[in-house]
Amino acid sequence: MSEFIVHAIPGSPFSRSVMAALEEKGASWRLAPVAPGTLRSAEHLARHPFGRVPVLEHDGFSLYETQAILRYLDRVLPTPQLSPSDAKRLARMDQVMNINDWYFFHGVGNVIIFHRVIGPRLMGTAPDEAAIEAAMPKARTVFSELARLLGEQPFFTGEALSLADLLVAPGVAFFTATPEWAELGAPHPNLVAWLARVEARPSMRATTWERVTELAKAA
Ligand SMILES: N[C@@H](CCC(=O)N[C@@H](CS)C(=O)NCC(=O)O)C(=O)O
């Protein structure tokens, strides 16, 4: 099996999902670091015309969109299987993945994580409190819905880790560093326990912002 190359920015939650999936599969992969200021460069736009990360390269095949990448990895690296066989569990996985992309990332993660963590850390900007406040109604719905769908299961689709957990956990993990976590996450003990369970996995420990920054320096 030829090597997997992940074009990514250290700290990017979508990129972390892909790298964590590769780690779960025990695959041989390497990071091709993308400097944040080069997302609109001709070189990067040739890989990803929308100027985002991650992009996966494998065996002469280039692919962007995290959900597509995760499902591709689960097909070409079938063990351990990260998509349930049962139709209802699989539908739940798909639903949670779409909640991540449509409701969690857009208008919640990309506002609150950006203003609380990314902007201050990378650009030295102060949080835009009004933007954060405006994002809170949708954030409340997202977090309470994630907690409801998780219920008392260890993972979103039941007893086994799935692509849904790997897609959602990197974004939720960022929230623990924000004051909003006290209202959004902490009141849901099941979500807190789930995050601890997913973050304890070697795949997630191998793909922290700090660890991927080290990989980027070594690349
Ligand atoms: N729909 C894309 C979203 C990817 C995405 O938004 N990635 C963020 C980093 S986590 C990004 O590249 N942001 C750069 C920007 O917004 O300019 C996917 O699923 O891969």
Description:
The chain contains ten helices and four strands; from the N terminus they run βαβαββαααααααα. With 219 residues, it is of the alpha+beta class. It has a four-stranded mixed sheet with strand order 2-1-3-4. β1, α1 (13-25) and β2 form a beta-alpha-beta unit. The model has no long low-confidence stretch (mean pLDDT 97).
Characteristic key phrases:
219 residues; alpha+beta; binds glutathione; single chain
Adjacency order of strands in the biggest sheet? 2-1-3-4
Shape: globular
The helicity comes to 55-70%
Task: Quote the beta fraction.
Answer: 5-15%
Summarize, please.
Helices cover 60% and strands 8% of the residues.
Topology:
Elements: E1 4-8, H1 13-25, E2 29-33, H2 42-47, E3 55-58, E4 61-64, H3 66-76, H4 87-123, H5 129-150, H6 163-175, H7 181-184, H8 189-199, H9 202-205, H10 209-218
Parallel strand pairs: 1-2
Antiparallel strand pairs: 1-3, 3-4
Helix pairs in contact: 1-3, 1-6, 4-5, 4-6
